[in-house]
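Re: [ENG-882] Designed sequences occasionally contain unexpected residues at chain ends

Forwarding the minimal case from QA. Structure tokens:
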């Protein structure tokens, strides 16, 4: 063995050997394995590349898969990728832009073909990176959310919901990106703190002497609280769609004004002053304008109070006809015109700087415009109840416990889910329109009359898995498919069971479902995890997984979120090439605790991991050298209990205690705690103490065989215990340390060796206590030598009054370790 472990020399070679073995596939594992253990990978976007969050999450999953595989389970870690609708479409649109093209110039069919071309070329990038990390997924079962079979499952789910009366089409408030011209999900909205302005605008009370007429501006600027109410806003352009002013019902300042009417400036529309519990009395003046068409909270208030809904901002970010003379202007143009007019009328009480969170489209950075939009929605009230009960009744365990409340709170107040997106890449809705009927499958400006009248569904469409050969409505036309696609989260909500063959009753679905474990990030607990749970309960009548582990967020060393654009991002591939991917795995896990929310990533932990791996390598070299001295072709030594020393008893006791503790910690998802315990045992007990004593004992022919046996036995055990954490180096060492298998052989791969079992007979608390006395004496003498500045090789005398018997019996060990003569 070389003096230093060289990760680059071995990692690719070992991974190829694993793949060649077929042992990633549970159907090809050796032996009889009755129990199964399944994890479905949280599918990374096809646009993605490995970041530290991915590295941590997938290392956690791989540790568990390797652990249960070694414990005799048929382990399936099912991999795959997500088509990532808006993200992938934006990437390809950027590529087209470089060529001077737009998707509209290509047309839908050619554009989708172009996206498929991109996916085939770049979509497996992150999969190959996961292989470098050592992930032991069953790649033969790899799935993609736009696979033909998966698409059938998505359509089946949509049709099922529709037939059950849970899907409807109608106008509701959504997150709208004017640049992407589509509704987007909450997870696709990012927030950026920006410095803006807060404008305080006076709304005259009706029948006050300052009430404006339809044609004349307000002439008198000497207002007082008897004549107007002041509202504060960061978005004055939306005032054109105001249908009320609201105050908190407990705000004593406005009690006399509740129920009165104000005249909306510039529009001269009468709107009421109402109360609502959601109004924050501390914001601005405590009185807020209510624009149900352009704010989610206002939409909720508007529905409860049955307010009119007026859409003044269109889907492309321009003012609609409902904005009157401001129609056609961009949002910023309208804002400036409105502010100018309000200043002229002396209706702005004051302006002040104001920091606030601006909602942006995560993909293109455009400010989000909440919009009333005609979309497809899934009713959530009833469908969420089984998902709530599953967690409340502990059929599904969420770890750490604090996330359980977040999950239950979200499902308890969940709104109907907007399923449709105005994109070209994704699962097209299985909706078919009669071309002679009223087709409204596009995004028009929404009129006030449409929104304020009772909405009626068009009868010119059908929902079906396949396009009908003949239109069942007019009996003439070739039906037109919906141009909308489904929210990416709809298809990924089916991931745990659709990847196993649902809706067909496949062998995989029978054998590996429900799955056992899910590891994911906290920000998608409700966007993805909750949706998988209620989808699974709806379609399979089973929970999708037993345990949900919310892994900690990886932060920059400053404590801020990692960001490539801000220069705080760290590429795990770069540090993997620098230190080895075992070091990346070990260094990440070393820094986590099971119940923590986040941790600051420190690259020094990766360096420390590399040093530890080299320590393991050197322990192995030393052990191999000791074995070779015995000149045995076949290693068949046995432990001679008559010649066992205190140090032997101690290390065997500690070894079995570590087996017990680490096994329990892995099962309890205390992976960081388990790894740190292994680190301390191997470095500070096995290496620092037993290896040094082994050197002494090996000079005694009577003790040599026992010592070499214990060295070999201990090394085999720690390789097995470490394998889930650092699989590459442990596999290499395991192959080399077994004399009869000095060359790598598939049938002897560590990946399928048995997990160590505790030998309780070897756990010896008395021996551990006695050895602690030896350790303490050695440390005491070494400290004394250091204090006396004694040269390392100089033998000194050290007197002990009334030594214990255990010290007398181990006198030679103490003297050898301390370079003293005990008296």
């Amino acid at each position: 063995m070389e003096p230093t472990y060289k990760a680059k020399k071995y990692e690719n070679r070992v991974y190829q050997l694993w793949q060649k073995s077929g042992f990633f596939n549970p159907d090809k594992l050796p032996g009889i394995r009755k129990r199964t253990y399944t994890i479905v990978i949280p599918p990374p976007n096809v646009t993605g590349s490995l970041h530290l969050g991915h590295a941590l999450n997938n290392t956690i999953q791989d540790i568990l898969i390797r652990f249960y595989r070694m414990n005799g389970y048929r382990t399936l870690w099912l991999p795959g990728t997500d088509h990532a609708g808006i993200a992938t479409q934006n990437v390809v649109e950027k590529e087209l832009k470089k060529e001077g093209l737009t998707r509209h110039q290509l047309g839908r069919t050619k554009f989708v073909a172009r996206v498929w071309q991109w996916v085939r070329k770049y979509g497996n990038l992150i999969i190959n990176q996961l292989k470098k990390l050592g992930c032991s997924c069953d790649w033969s079962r790899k799935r993609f959310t736009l696979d033909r079979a998966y698409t059938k499952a998505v359509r089946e789910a949509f049709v099922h919901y529709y037939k059950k009366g849970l899907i409807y089409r109608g106008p509701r408030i959504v997150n709208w990106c004017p640049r992407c011209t589509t509704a987007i999900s909450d997870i696709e909205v990012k927030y950026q703190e920006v410095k803006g302005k807060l404008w305080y605008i006076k709304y005259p009370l009706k029948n006050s002497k300052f009430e404006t007429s339809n044609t004349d501006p307000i002439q008198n600027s000497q207002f007082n609280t008897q004549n107007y109410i002041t509202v504060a806003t960061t978005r004055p352009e939306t005032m054109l769609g105001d249908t009320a002013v609201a105050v908190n019902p407990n705000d004593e300042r406005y009690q006399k004004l509740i129920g009165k009417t104000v005249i909306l400036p510039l529009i001269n529309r009468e709107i009421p002053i109402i109360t609502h519990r959601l109004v924050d009395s501390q914001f601005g003046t405590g009185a807020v304008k209510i624009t149900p068409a352009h704010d989610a909270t206002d939409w909720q208030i508007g529905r409860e109070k049955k307010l009119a809904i007026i859409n003044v901002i269109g889907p492309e970010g321009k003012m609609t006809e409902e904005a009157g003379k401001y129609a056609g202007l961009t949002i910023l143009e309208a804002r400036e015109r409105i502010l100018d007019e309000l200043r002229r009328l002396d209706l702005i009480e004051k302006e002040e700087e104001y920091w606030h969170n601006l909602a942006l489209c995560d993909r293109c950075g455009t400010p989000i415009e909440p919009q009333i939009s005609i979309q497809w929605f899934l009713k959530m009230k009833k469908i969420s109840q089984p998902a709530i009960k599953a967690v409340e009744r502990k059929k599904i365990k969420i770890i750490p416990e604090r996330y359980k409340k977040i999950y239950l709170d979200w499902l308890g107040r969940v709104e109907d889910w907007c399923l449709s997106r105005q994109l070209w890449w994704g699962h097209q809705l299985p909706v078919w329109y009669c071309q002679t009927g009223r087709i409204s499958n596009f995004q028009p400006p929404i009129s006030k009359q449409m929104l304020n009248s009772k909405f009626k569904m068009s009868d010119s469409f059908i929902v079906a898995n396949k396009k009908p050969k003949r239109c069942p409505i007019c009996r003439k036309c070739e039906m037109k498919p919906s141009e909308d696609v489904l929210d990416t989260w709809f298809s990924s909500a089916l991931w745990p069971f659709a990847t196993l063959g649902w809706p067909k009753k496949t062998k995989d679905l029978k054998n590996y479902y429900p799955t056992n474990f899910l590891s994911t990030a906290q920000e998608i607990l409700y966007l993805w995890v909750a949706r998988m749970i209620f989808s699974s309960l709806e379609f399979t009548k089973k929970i999708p997984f037993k345990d949900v582990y919310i892994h900690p967020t990886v932060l920059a060393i400053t404590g801020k979120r990692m960001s490539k654009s801000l220069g705080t991002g760290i590429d795990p591939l770069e540090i993997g090439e620098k230190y080895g991917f075992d070091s990346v795995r070990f260094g990440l896990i070393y820094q986590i605790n099971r119940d923590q929310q986040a941790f600051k990533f420190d690259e020094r932990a990766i360096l420390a991991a590399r040093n530890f791996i080299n320590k393991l390598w050197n322990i192995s070299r030393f052990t191999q050298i000791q074995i070779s001295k015995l000149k045995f072709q076949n290693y068949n030594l046995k432990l001679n209990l008559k010649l066992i020393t205190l140090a032997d008893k101690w290390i065997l006791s500690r070894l079995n205690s570590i087996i017990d503790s680490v096994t329990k910690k892995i099962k309890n998802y205390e992976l960081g705690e388990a790894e740190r315990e292994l680190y301390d045992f191997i470095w500070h007990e096995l290496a620092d103490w037993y290896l040094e004593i082994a050197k002494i004992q090996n000079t005694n022919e009577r003790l040599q065989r026992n010592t070499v046996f214990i060295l070999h036995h201990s090394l085999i055990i720690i390789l097995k215990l470490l394998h889930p954490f650092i699989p590459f180096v442990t596999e290499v060492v395991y192959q080399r340390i077994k004399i009869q298998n000095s060359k790598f052989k598939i049938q002897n791969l560590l990946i399928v060796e048995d997990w160590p079992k505790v030998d309780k007979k070897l756990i010896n608390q008395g021996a551990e206590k006695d050895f602690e006395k030896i350790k303490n004496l050695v440390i005491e003498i070494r400290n004394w030598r250091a204090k006396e500045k004694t040269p390392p090789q100089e033998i000194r005398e050290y007197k002990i009054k009334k030594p214990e018997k255990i010290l007398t019996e181990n006198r030679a060990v103490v003297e050898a370790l301390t370079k003293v003569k005990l008296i």
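QA comment: On inspection the terminal residues look reasonable. Residues 373 and 417 are 13 Å apart (CA to CA). Proposing we downgrade this to a documentation issue.
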